[in-house]
Write a structure and sequence with these properties.
With 315 residues, the chain is α/β, with parallel strands linked by helices. It has 13 helices and 10 strands. The structure holds iron/sulfur cluster (SF4) and zinc ion (ZN). The site of zinc ion has 8 residues, from helix 12.
Length: 315
């Protein structure tokens, strides 16, 4: 197999695009795809100040690297979930990338606020770990964006994540989630940050290849709570369809994005923190109350990021 651009031996075969590329041309191809996605879907516009949600994995660290390479100077946010070695190793990978990029990374340590890691917190809330984690992450990331003046929160969800979530929502006709899966979710000034997913047309396999070819030092292990049987089954089924008919996932996602219209919901705002809620108080503030934690005092003292060390400044 030869690279379609330069004719040298190819390193990767991209069946969905009916092409094969060498390492160098694949790197340019993937970066151009991300740039094209950002522009075509208006993910980041003039005047926006992006910040990337980083987990230490291949997708988010590669995205952070690509954004800065493309000229979208972006800082990072990391939530330390207190999941033993997994969280500590992830943090070292993120600090390393922050040093390489010379960007700032905001780090919030869940244990510092709740005196519990996410697992224990979830048990106390009688929720699955991912549900507690999602709630805490959404709140803290939004808070960092608003407190620190970022206008767009950028996440590393790839096409496999998005296609399997969409597939699951369709199978069960979860209307309440189905129409909220757009690749750009608009914000509300002072209350809610805009959220975008520039990797939604890039596959897990492509992102792993990109990270390896660019020597990005990421954590190979997945979060121990990520063994969500259903989403793995959906990913496997979609991969089979993709094998039979390359490009299926891209058509599935692109078709959805063409059709979806963001539903503008009536919003309430939390009486305590002012962020969106579905009642008088948001879930996060209710949780703080339940554990008798003075949230406002805490955030005033510590800011939205509470781990001292790695506040790296932009040079
Ligand atoms: Fe959080 Fe679940 Fe993802 Fe782990 S797998 S980081 S607990 S949402
Ligand atoms: Zn609140």
């Amino acid at each position: 197999m030869k690279c379609r651009v330069c004719g040298q031996p190819a390193n990767i075969n991209l069946k969905a695009y009916n092409t094969a590329l060498c390492a160098e041309d694949f790197i340019s191809f993937l970066e151009n795809r991300v740039l094209h996605t950002i522009k075509k879907y208006h993910l980041i516009e003039d005047g926006d100040i992006p910040v990337v949600a980083v987990s230490g994995g291949k997708d988010s660290l590669s995205l952070w690297h690509i954004m800065n390479k493309l000229g979208y100077g972006a800082d990072g946010i990391y939530i330390h979930l207190g999941i033993g070695e997994y969280s500590d190793i992830s943090l070292t990978k993120i600090q390393h990338m922050a040093d390489t990029l010379k960007r700032k990374v905001y780090i919030f340590n869940v244990h510092d606020l709740f005196r519990k890691g996410i697992d224990e917190l979830a048990r106390a809330m009688r929720r699955p770990p991912c549900s507690a984690c999602g709630m805490v992450k959404r709140y803290i990331m939004n808070r960092v964006c608003i407190d620190k003046g970022y206008t767009v929160l950028v996440t590393g969800h790839n096409i496999d994540d998005e296609a399997s979530a969409l597939f699951g929502n369709l199978l069960y006709w979860k209307r309440e989630y189905l129409w909220k899966k757009n690749m750009v979710l608009h914000g509300i000034e002072g209350h809610l940050s805009k959220k975008v997913k520039p990797l939604f047309l890039c596959s897990e396999r492509e992102m792993a290849a990109y990270a390896i070819l660019c020597n990005i030092d990421y954590i190979y292990e997945e979060c121990p709570f990520s063994v969500d049987a259903k989403s793995l089954v959906y990913k496997g089924m979609l991969n089979k369809l993709e094998e039979l008919s390359p490009g299926t996932k891209i058509r599935f996602l692109k078709g959805y994005v063409k059709m979806v219209k963001e539903e503008v919901e009536e919003r309430d705002y939390c009486a305590i923190c002012g962020y969106p809620s579905y009642g008088g108080k948001c879930n996060f503030c209710r949780l703080l109350e339940r554990f008798k934690i003075q949230g406002n005092i805490y955030f005033e003292e510590h800011g939205a990021c509470n781990l001292d060390s790695p506040q790296r400044m932009v040079t």
